[in-house]
Queue: 2 jobs
Job 1
Amino acid sequence: MSGPAARPAGHIAASLREQIRAAIDAGGEIGDDELMRTVERTVDRWEGSVRLVSSERLRLVRQLFHSFRGLDVLEPLLKDDSITEIMINGHRQLFAERAGRVEPLREQFESRERLEDLIQAIVAQVNRVVNESSPIVDARLADGSRVHIVLPPASLSGPVVTIRKFPKRPLLMDGLVACGCLTEDAAGFLRTLVRAGFNIFISGGTGSGKTTFLNALSRSIPDEERVVTIEDSAELQLQVPNLVRLETRNANTEGKGALPMRQLIRASLRMRPNRIIVGEVRGEEAADMLAAMNTGHDGSMSSGHANSAKDMLSRLETMVLAAAELPVAAIRQQILSAVDVIVHLSRMRDHSRKVLEISQLAGIEGGEIRLEPLYRYEAGPDGASMLRRTTAELRRSDKWERAGGEPFGASSSSAKEERDDGD
């Protein structure tokens, strides 16, 4: 765009949108094809002082069309499979993550009001409310993408929106092996753990792939089992026939109608579930999750933010303490009884995501829970780093053998070597 009277593209779009809206109102409801023709005619007839080159014209036509039929400038970004996350810092500043790297985008919203309108449309689809008195909310898009919104006065940068996209085809365990997240041996081990009904907790930092991994693990749940999932914002894509999905809800503007995680976990216990899967525990609901794992719901799973498997145990203790004033020794015993295995994920410097540790809870020593690594990401004799099996033996061998797993651990390795020598 050039010329002394040039105006920002946002003003152009706003002006043309009003013309298109007037044409639609005059002609009644129209289909997508007719809307596109109306948009193109309106842009072609536009006689402003700004001349648009062909690429700018095409971008403007798409933006105007998506403002009526989609999510405005976000629509092409959401359809771009190479983008995994979209970050909006006010209406003029957009960023996207591609292949683990964050880059600025040329796109921007025509005005703050337009972005705010879009935010209200998004939260209305999932029956949520966000405004100045309640400026923070989690939501989701129709395709399952997770949306986190922060409005002023909590945000000093204007409306801030973060959209976490998920693959149209969720990554299965084989896909995680192919991309180097874990080894085939570890993947087979985890599949058997899930079938055997081990209670598994997944830990990791932000963006480490906890939800993706939870989805992949769930594919090993037997079809005959009834599963209840509980999430703040429904993201899990389980493929289980007998599945119940529950989602929390914030209070309305009158402070009523809230459905907290703790209430949903308690409700799920009356639904006769074989397994309960909590997308992520962040607070007092950890106490209810552990109670569910301790009351016959073998094979339950959850995830949480932590820098290591050991840190995850400390965080669980803190969360349970927030829910009830119990002795620390009692809380640790409850965690030990409830959780069998912790899988820790991390995002590496090269932006890849890997399993760094698969550890079992091996008892209490010196008053603290002892973690025993079964697999650990480390360098081998050849200098190459990968997820390697340790010599530790699996303690809950009863569950493991009922699921048809071969003996696991140092003794099984020795037996295998003896068989190989005999051959």
Job 2
Amino acid sequence: MNWVNAVGSSLMARRPRTPNTALAGLMQSGGIGNAQLARRVNAAGRELGVTLHYDKSTVSHWVAGSVPRAKARPAVAEALSRLLGRPVTCAEIGWADAPEPAEARDAVAGVIDLSRADMDPSRRGVLKAGMYAAALVVPRFEDVAGRTEVARAGRTVHIGRSDVETVRTMTEKVADILDQVGAGHARPMAAAFLVNTAGPYLRASGTEEVTRQMRAAVADFVYLTGWMAMYENQQGLGQRYYLRALELAGAAEDHVTYCRTLRGMSLQASHLGYGERALELADAAAEAAPVAGPRLVAFLRGQQAAAAAMTGDRRTAAVRLGEAEAALSRADDRRDAVGGYDTAALLFHEAHVRWHLGDQARSITALRCSNAARSPLERQGRLHCLGVIAERQFRMRHIEAACATWNEFLDHHVTLSSARGDEHLRTMLKALPACRDVAGVRELEERARHVATLKAA
């Protein structure tokens, strides 16, 4: 009898699992095999800093109803997002999302903690490996407007308008350094400023108006820091800075910085190939915008055009690009340190639209015109544009033209610290060996390898 009871208890403890029809449906919709998903999850885990050794049998268990450990679930969601080309959440898979840490809901603490980790060499590698989440839930403006909790006990610092101006001046200076020597040099300075100066300002006392202005000014600075992380291919870190910028902009009731940050998140999604997500974020930025000046309108419409082109929506892309051009023609000549939009940026968007809609030759022309219109001080933007031109020329089999552009690219890259430039260099070195019979290719390859050695030293 005891044996029977023991068996009965064991059977009750091991209740049959409910098959995960949601996961099975997602895999079926994308033609995703068990082994394929396991490989992608392991790769996403490495980006997240989590060591995973899943195989096809593990995925079979998930489909049958087992649930992976909490820290592995984001890797599964991101792997499915990339395989399906759209955001997939843990909830859509049928699993609970990991709870948000309490400190993540405090905008000020979030900024300081993230920046302090970015400064710490022992943690920088973990941050760099942080994974970009295509399915990230972005807070609406009304959800974050006026919301920030800061510790009030023991305040000894009082801020005024001059302190707000200090943050704004630093934003301009760091943006200039970014343009001239690259994000690799500028971002460590930005993280240090956030920890040592801007963070304490956010916790200081001041009038209601000065406090609001300080939050808005720091939100701009955080947005710029996120943009630099994104440009350095630290996509997860960039996304986290962007989220903090959204929260601070909401706390400051600053629609402009909120919309500008959403637009930056759209640009990040488009760079990573998430067209639908890029369009969703660009449209959200435009919808949340207040009555905007012409430059902000152009700034938002240009990104809407670029994202629409990625989805193949030719009509919307053309309409939005026309709206961006018309708005920019009405703007003044002011150059904004953060979120600026000018003729060079418009032409870069035009090139993006033309390329994705199949007008390759005119895309190259637009890129050339973009660099011609670019300020000589915008060296990092010029470098990236040259890299894009060369890669598109190569894809069009215009090998000699690509080599000429790559040589120009190397002239600039050797003096800049830019992870995106390094990425263009790796693309060049991977492409050239197949064309060594073309005049000038061997010499270019030798030069490129020499530059790569110098950059690695």
